[in-house]
Here is the input.
Amino acid sequence: MSTTNAPTKEASIEQLQYARILEKGMLAGLFLMVITFALYVFGVTKPLIPLQDISTLWATKSGVYLTTVENKYIPEGHSLKVRVHAQQDAATPQAQGHESRAGAHHAPRHVLSGWAWFSLLGYADFLNFLPVAILAGITIICYGVIIPGFFARGDMAMGIMAIVEIGILVLAASGILKVGGH
Amino acid sequence: MQRNIKKKVGVLLASLVCTIMLSPVWTLAQEVTAVAQVPVCTPDDWWKWPLILLGVTFVMGIIAVLGGVGGGVLYVPIMSGFFPFHIDFVRGTGLLVALCGALAAGPGLLKANLASLRLALPVALIASTMAIVGAVVGLAMPPHIVQLSLGATILGIVAIMLSAKKSAVPDVPAADALSSALRICGIYHDYATKQDINWKIHRTIPGLMLFVIIGFMAGMFGLGAGWANVPVLNLLMGAPLKISVATSKFLLSITDTSAAWIYFNQGCIIPMMVVPSLIGIMLGSFVGVRLLKVAKPGFIRWMVIFVLLFSGGKAIQKGYQEYQKVNNNKPAVSQQVAIPAQAPVEAKTHQ
Here is the structure.
C-alpha cells in the first residue's frame, strides 16, 4: 500500500479504503436485495401494490404510476394518504365529491416521490427499496471515508473535489431536485 | 475438442438469441406498441415476468461480457424497444443494472490498482453532475423525443464501436499542467507482458469537457457510459487501455449513482423489474466470463452490433409512432393501459 504522494505499483491508502467500503456495501446491498425480493415474490410479506397489477402499471409513465399508487393503493389513514387528500383539496377545491381519474389530476408534486417510500417499508414491495438505496448510497460513504486522508497528506485538490462530489450526490439523493412532468 | 466446444458455444448463443427474438414476449411487446390488447401474460400470470426478465437479462449478461459492452447499453434499447415497459422505468432499471455491474467490479479493480481513484475523481465530479442534469431533462421530455434520441444515440454507439481504435499504451510525451497539478499518474503491473507500466495523461481539459456530454447522455438515457468513457480516457487523454477500461467501470459506480437517485426519487423503480434484471445480468456476467475463454470474440462483437442496430432502429420506429399519435391527438398507448380495466381508481371519498 502506498503511503506517499509519489505513484507506486500499489494502490494508495485512500483507494484501498474506498474499495473496502464499496465491497462491503455492495455485498450487503445485494444480499439484502435477494432476501427482500424473496419475501415479496413468495408472499411472505404483503405488498402495497398487488402482484397482479404490476404488469399493467409498468407500461404507464412514472407520473401516472405514482398517481395510481397514491390514489388507489395507499390505505386511508396513512400519513401519505392524508397528504394526497390535502394536495387534491388545495388543487381542486371545486371538484370535491366528484370522481377523479388517475392521471387526470396534476398534483404539484407527487406525494410518493423522494423518500416517501421510507414510510411504506412495512410493505414487501417498498421493502425492496431499502437495498436499492444502500447500493445507490454506498458511494457517498466511500467518499466520506477517504476525505480525511487526502487533507492529512496535503492533497487539498482531491479532498475538495471529494467534498463537492458528496454534496452533489447528497443533492441527488435528497429528492429536492424537481422534475417537470411530460 | 476445443473447436467442438467453440462450435457448440456459438450454436448455443445463436439459439438463445433466436429464442428471445421469437418468443411470445417479443410478440407482445411489438403488439403493445401498436394497440392495447389482450397480453400474452395476463395479470394473474404475474409470476412469469420475473422469470422472463431473469432469462432475458441472463442472456444479455453473457452477451454483454462477450461483446465487451456494459449491461445498460444492451438493457435500455432492448427493454424499451421490445418489451411493454415504459421508458421511464427502463431507464431507471438500466442505470441500476450498470451501477450494480460497476459496484461488483469496482473493489477488485481498485485493489489491483487498475482503476485509478485519482483519475476518476475529477472525471466523476463532472460526469455525475451532468448525469443529474441529464436525468432531470430526460424525465421532463416527452417519451417520443426520448425514444427518438435514444435510437439515434444507440446508432451512434454502433458507429463508435465500428470505428474506434484502441491503444494498449498510448504515447504521452508529457503530462499536461492540470494532470500534473492533480498528480493523475500511476504505475501498474501488466501480467501479460510482465512489465511495470508508468502512465500519465494529457489533454485533460478537452477530456473533461467531453465528460460533460457523456454524463448528460448517461443520465438522460440510463445507458451507463462505458462505450464513451473508454475511448475518451484511452484515445484522447492517453491512459493505458487497461487503466481506461478499469477506471471507466469504476467511474460508472459514481456517475450512475447520481442519475439513479433522480430516477429513484421520481418513482421510476419497480422492484419486480429491477431485482430479476440485476440478478439475471449478474449471473449472465459470471457465465460470460467463463465462456470468454472459448467464444469467438469477432462473432460476438458482430452479434452485439447487430442487436444494437436492431434496437436502435426499433427505438426510432417506436418514437416515430408515438410522435404520430401525439400529432393526431390520439391518447398514447401508455395512457390506454394506465388504468387496470378491472380496477378503476377509487373515487375520493373523504370530505
